[in-house]
Amino acid sequence: MRLVAEGLSAKRGEDLIFQDISFEIAGGEALVVKGPNGSGKSTLLRVLAGLLPAESGTAKLLAAAHPVERVGEGAHYLGHRNAMKRELTVEENLAFWKAFFGDFAGGQGMAVDAAVEAVGLGGIAHLPFGYLSAGQQRRMAMAKLLVAWRPVWILDEPTAALDIAAEEMFSDLVMAHLARGGLAIAATHQPLGLTGARELRMAGFAPVDAGSWA
Ligand SMILES: Nc1ncnc2c1ncn2[C@@H]1O[C@H](COP(=O)(O)OP(=O)(O)OP(=O)(O)O)[C@@H](O)[C@H]1O
């Protein structure tokens, strides 16, 4: 499986935020998107996830087993917000997402209780999501990635509000995802501990070509 982005440009409002971004990553690989505040990292991730239209260019998911897909079809997007209902329990939230997403071809999501254990929060899944601390809420949002299989994980500042143990836990989860043949694209200011990850450096309004990512 490969994710191929070619000549991506995007606007916010009337402003062109970036142009000519091209990259390619394969199953088992991670791409870390770096750059100063406002350089367009979140915008790029939202374009890849299909949440914002690209001004030009394409991003495709190519797999031998099935036809070309829009990246968003095969992706989980973890944004700045956790996308959980505060009044529902953790279990109810995760069960909703599991049923809503279903599994993408080629994999199977974890059971809700296994996902809760995997993020180290067994024992509090009966609580309303709104009762959890900020870091616990973020961990639960990560469990959302586990309950339904998506080959691509698109992660925007995934470790904000996490303690060091949770950062390590998350890096292990991403590495396990890559080991299953998944792909990950993460925008972050913090080191994520993703051994061997490639880097895309956003410079604000400037073309980014193959020479700028490694
Ligand atoms: N809805 C919008 N309308 C107009 N401009 C916007 C909108 N949303 C974001 N922008 C602008 O787009 C630019 C890129 O924002 P973006 O959130 O992608 O940056 P970022 O690199 O993720 O920043 P940070 O590191 O602070 O999270 C910024 O200059 C921002 O002000």
TrEMBL record:
Pfam families, per database record: ABC_tran
Residues in the signal sequence: none
Gene3D superfamilies per UniProt: P-loop containing nucleotide triphosphate hydrolases
ABC transporter domain mapped to chain residues: 3-214
UniProt-listed InterPro entries: AAA+_ATPase, ABC_transporter-like_ATP-bd, ABC_transporter-like_CS, ABC_transptr_haem_export_CcmA, P-loop_NTPase
Protein keywords: ATP-binding, Cytochrome c-type biogenesis, Membrane, Nucleotide-binding, Translocase, Transport
Molecular-function annotations in GO: ATP binding
UniProt entry tagged with the keyword Cytoplasm: no
Family per similarity comment: Belongs to the ABC transporter superfamily.
Name of the protein in question: Cytochrome c biogenesis ATP-binding export protein CcmA
Gene that encodes the chain: ccmA
